[in-house]
Amino acid sequence: MRQAWRVADVRAAERELLATLPPDTLMRRAAAGLARRCALLLADRGGVYGARVLLLVGSGDNGGDALYAGARLAERGARVAALPLVPGRAHERGLAALRTAGGRVVEELPAGTDLVVDGIVGIGASGGLREPAARLVARLGELRDRDGARPPVVAVDAPSGVDPDSGDVPGAGGETAELAAAVTADLTVTFGCLKPGLVVGPAATRAGEVELVDIGLGPSLRSAAALGVTEWSDVVDWWPRLRAWSEKYTRGVVGVATGSATYPGAGILSVGGALAGPTGMVRYAGGARAEVLHHHPSVIATERVADAGRVQAWVCGSGLGTGEEALTELRCVLAAPVPVVLDADALTLLVDGSSADRLRARDAPIVITPHDREFARLAGEAPGADRVGAALRLAAWMRATVLLKGDRTIVATADGRAYVNPTGTPALATGGTGDVLAGLLGSLLAAGLAPERAALAAAYLHGLAGREAARGGPVTAADVATALRPVIARLDVG
């Protein structure tokens, strides 16, 4: 699992390491990695020699990184131009290195550019871009490379203007064609460690592809990481294995209390998600019994939770309704001494507080899966700019694991750990996909995974299934449920 650290922790690590090194050592290490990655980009677009590179240079160390990297590119024959945002305040030694290598300083955007390097502020500023940077960045779309195409933009450490800790883009609400809130990069080359803003929130979409350059910072990162980022290898390691002696009960039994006569599709989809998971049996309880059996004949189906039999985990909520009958089913689920996933209507039923005593009395884990509007009803306010912090607060308050759905889904635990799923796709923004996710999550809980691992694995595979389904055109939730099977087959865990 990859990890991301907040700016304050990065700065503390840098100070510790800098105390043992000659001046500009870290900057030169960063610049070497940045120049190498820029050269690879240019190699795919006609070569480094003769390529026109534009450096947008701020007055801090971020600008110094860009200048030293520009010097390296100039030494390889690139035609490098530096445009200081604050004339006279660019990093002096970096600027001298660029000039020595044959680079030049310009005052306006040059007519032709094959690569733009964003060295304006990186992780060193707060708030969105200000003048003149905001106006200059808005004009980057005017640039053209040697083939008449828009040149790629490489951000140094983080796209300038984003919040590297929260993933927010502070000035996005006032962004116009003339003023940009932040740089939108094709590639971000970050140094030492990942920063949360590169993997969560709207800032992550501004970062483009992210490449980490090792500058020796790792041993000096003393604080705990702010965020974990799930990887394929994590899901492979966590996935329950079949054994020679496995049978349907030892693999786990998941109960699914979803759907109703009004919303039978929710039951069908959540059961579909559960069947794609690792458990050996699915028990369905709800008003969509006939429809669920028609689509999934292997399921054991009843009309009430009380009649369902023993399970190792429950999924409850999708399409359940919010009347007295639905509330009775939710209370039965909460009374069971097993992990539960609460989604959709189950979350709505929690808002009035009538089930608070049952939640507090539970010893078994709870995982809730709100989207932003459901989160706002539960927490009393929207997640806001800091989605990770918001999810952590709700997890602590509810003593539950929170899976806050979104393009970069957040998983937060009651004891203060947070993770992000990197596989999200806008293709999943369609009705019923959350039902599929809840079913898969419940199956993983019933198979014995810890709540945060079950949530992370489910979100990761659900995201990949959404991408897979999108290959065939517009996506429906049924497409996602179908795509889960080939995606999970790639785990190759027997």
| Distance from first to last alpha carbon | 22 Å
List the strand order in the largest sheet. 1-9-18-17-16-15-14-13-10-11-12
Separate helix tally: 17
Q: Write down the overall mean pLDDT.
A: 94
Q: Using the coordinates above, name the CATH class of the largest domain.
A: Alpha Beta
Q: Stretches where pLDDT falls below 50 for ≥5 residues?
A: none
Q: Which oligomeric state applies?
A: single chain
> Roughly what fraction of the amino acids lie in strands?
5-15%
Taken from the alpha-carbon principal axes, the silhouette is elongated
Percentage of residues in helical conformation: 25-40%
- The third-level CATH topology of the largest domain is UDP-N-acetylmuramoyl-L-alanine:D-glutamate ligase
The major pleated sheet works out as: 11 strands, mixed
Radius of gyration: 26 Å
The number of E-state strands comes to 18
Number of domains: 2
Broad structural category: alpha/beta
CATH architecture of the largest domain: 3-Layer(aba) Sandwich
